[in-house]
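Its record is retained below.
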Amino acid sequence: MKFNPGDKVAALDDDLEGVVVNADAASVTIETPDGFEMDFSPAELVKIETPIEDLSENVDFNRVLEEKQLPKKPKSKRIKPKERNAPPMEVDLHIEKLVNNFRGMNNFDILNLQMETAKRQLEFAMRKRIQKIVFIHGVGEGVLKAELDYLLGRYDNLKFYDADYQKYGQGATEVYFFQNN
């Protein structure tokens, strides 16, 4: 790089800058802001447009450092023993619990509404990191239970099984979500 008298330069290995006073192919003489003259080889200097002091006023170095650092992993929340055994979220899929009046709805419409409700509640529980949910579907002919089993079988991060017989009888399915922190 060729330096000319009057060029503003900075030393690469030093916190030092100045103005070129004299330059040839072998050495460059600069004058520091304090008035000292120093000799450098051209490879040790770089031209600057703005003095270093002016740059540091415009740059928030803390912000730059924050951007360079990896984001901190959120701390996993320790679940207290009593929260671990918290009662599960219950969703009653009986049609009379979902709508005020189901007259005029055929079986297909009823089943679709029940399945949409189940899917919506299932995704809500996943988003809110609720660990257990119980779907109360009743006994009946088993169509809703079969559809629910099919829906739950499409997810990898959960297991499902018959809910507590003493509390729900045979008409409920409990879902347990595997929490990966």
In short: The chain has a mean pLDDT of 83.
